[in-house]
Automatic annotation (TrEMBL):
Keywords: ATP-binding, Cell membrane, Kinase, Membrane, Nucleotide-binding, Phosphoprotein, Transferase, Transmembrane, Transmembrane helix, Two-component regulatory system. Its main location: membrane. CDD domains: HATPase (cd00075), HisKA (cd00082). Residues 193-247 form the HAMP domain. Residues 255-469 form the Histidine kinase domain. The chain crosses the membrane at residues 20-41, 168-196. It is an enzyme of class 2 (transferase). This is Signal transduction histidine-protein kinase ArlS. It comes from the Bacteria. It is found in: Cell membrane. The lineage of its organism: Bacteria, Bacillati, Bacillota, Bacilli, Bacillales. It is a multi-pass membrane protein. It comes from Rummeliibacillus stabekisii.
Length: 472
């Protein structure tokens, strides 16, 4: 049963949970306060009733002591008026003989005569709680020396008004408790509705995005800087980033498939040519095979570069490398590939410099920049690689005196697949990904890249990297 309740509570909406929890909490607090109040009132009022009994008995004893011990029944009767003024309206006082037979009665609130207790003291009185005629009463008994016999004074104090007051109080508390339960449930419900409305709207917005996709209009307007406002901001930021990534990926897939389509078409064309004519014509066969091989190499380069970019999105490792050594290796590699090219390394107080970047990444950056410098300049134009220390950074510059880049193209050259001159880049074996890779690697290792270029005069790429910690 308990499990069932817990299960259905867990499955109910946040609003219901909130309303129920607040109702229960308020009700329990109310019930505790009421119980404490009820029991304090009960004790206090009962002690008041007890005190009233004590007061009357004390007054009666004083009265009888003042009359002397040999008082006769008639003398007592003649003092009835005085005794009446001592006794409260709801109390009954009886004078009994030693056998418990009533001799005199003042007031008549309870008819039943209580039994005389054996343990009545010779001095003072005893007070006990008894049920007479179905009513709880305090019964006080004391001994009374009269002439000519020993008797008893017996006071009966019914507690009916005390009980009806307590019952009334209990009833009022129960009604109030029930009212508090209902009111607190409604207040909880209202509060939950009011406070959870933004969450509900956020959910609707999320559902809308899930159904309609990115770019759906924003439905929710919430300008408070509370937790929900925070959540909304985080959600919108996350969605904007996701949308951006999604669009970039879409763009990348489109560009990549477009780039791959051209070499595939070329290879396909040449293979058909070989199939139709090439078998009998060695010249066509030779040319088609060479072109196909070139295109396949282009595809291979493209795929490798795309993989490099995809790999680059990973987390940077804590790495370092000797800058000069790495650059010399790459320069030699390029000179080996293009023997007619002239590359000069210029150093400004640059010995044994270590930068906080992996050797592979620095090699890739310099290789891409050098390949571009070679591609987009004449063979006679010298390419310079300058190495400088600048404060806590090392600066690497790759400068050529080739065709340069127009100012209007400069902001786009780091974008994937962007080429200023599509035909020339393709002809030179470019993929349009080289500078994107450079940009990604530089960012990954906390470096900076600048480019300055003038059409027809040449281009200079400047890269700065933080030096390795122990060199600073
Ligand atoms: P690509 O593979 O086409 O060279 P990159 O991303 O390396 O692709 O370069 C993007 C474009 O920037 C190139 O197509 C080229 O037009 C231009 N570019 C890059 N480097 C140079 C340079 N040193 N001189 C002139 N143009 C350059």
């Amino acid at each position: 049963m308990n499990r069932k309740i817990l299960f259905s509570f867990r499955r109910s909406s946040l609003k219901t949970k909130w309303a129920l929890t607040s109702a229960v909490v308020i009700f329990i607090s109310f019930a505790i306060i009421c119980s404490v109040l009820y029991w304090s009132m009960h004790t206090w009022l009962l002690s008041q009733e007890h005190q009233s009994v004590n007061r009357t008995m004390d007054d009666l004893q004083v009265f009888f002591e003042s009359q002397g011990s040999g008082m006769t029944i008639d003398e007592i009767r003649s003092n009835r008026g005085l005794m009446n003024s001592i006794i409260d309206k709801n109390q009954t006082v009886r004078i009994l003989n030693k056998d418990g037979i009533e001799i005199l009665r003042i007031n008549d609130t309870i008819n039943q005569i209580p039994e005389i207790k054996k343990q009545v003291p010779s001095q003072g009185y005893i007070v006990e709680k008894e049920k007479l005629e179905g009513i709880d009463c305090f019964v006080a008994t004391s001994k009374l020396q009269m002439s000519p016999f020993l008797g008893y004074i017996q006071l009966t104090h019914p507690l009916d008004s005390f009980h009806s007051l307590m019952n009334y109080l209990l009833m009022a508390m129960c009604i109030l408790g029930l009212g508090a339960l209902i009111i607190s449930f409604y207040i909880g419900h209202f509060l939950a509705n009011f406070l959870l409305r933004p969450l509900h709207e956020l959910r609707l917005e999320m559902l809308n995005v899930a159904e309609e996709g990115f770019g759906t209009p924003i439905l929710m307007e919430y300008s408070y800087e509370d937790e929900i406002g925070d959540l909304l901001q985080v959600y919108r930021k996350m969605m904007a980033e996701l949308e951006q990534t999604f669009l970039l990926q879409q763009q990348f897939v489109q560009d990549a498939s477009h780039e791959l389509r051209t070499p595939i078409q070329v290879v396909e064309g040449h293979l058909s040519l070989i199939k139709r004519w090439g078998k009998d014509d060695p010249a066509i066969l030779q040319e088609s095979l060479e072109t196909s091989l070139t295109e396949i190499k282009r595809m291979k380069d493209l795929v490798e570069e795309m993989l490099e970019l995809a790999r680059g999105e990973g987390v940077a490792q804590d790495s370092h490398c000797n800058v000069e050594e790495t650059i010399r290796e790459i320069v030699e590699e390029q000179l080996h590939l293009y023997p007619s090219v002239k590359i000069e390394i210029v150093k400004n107080h640059f010995t044994n410099v270590y930068a906080a970047i992996s050797q592979r990444a620095l090699g890739q950056i310099v290789r891409n920049l050098l390949q571009n410098a070679i591609r987009y300049s004449n063979q006679d134009d010298k390419i310079f690689v300058c190495l400088t220390i600048e404060g806590k950074n090392c600066k690497i510059e790759v400068e050529d005196h080739g065709i340069g880049i127009a100012e209007s193209d400069l902001p786009y050259i780091f974008e994937r697949f962007y080429r200023v001159d599509q035909a020339r880049s393709r002809e030179e074996g470019g993929t349009g990904l080289g500078l994107s890779i450079v940009h990604m690697l530089v960012n990954k290792y906390g470096g900076k890249i600048f480019v300055s270029s003038k059409l027809g005069e040449g281009t200079k790429f400047q890269i700065t990297f933080p030096l390795e910690n122990n060199q600073i």
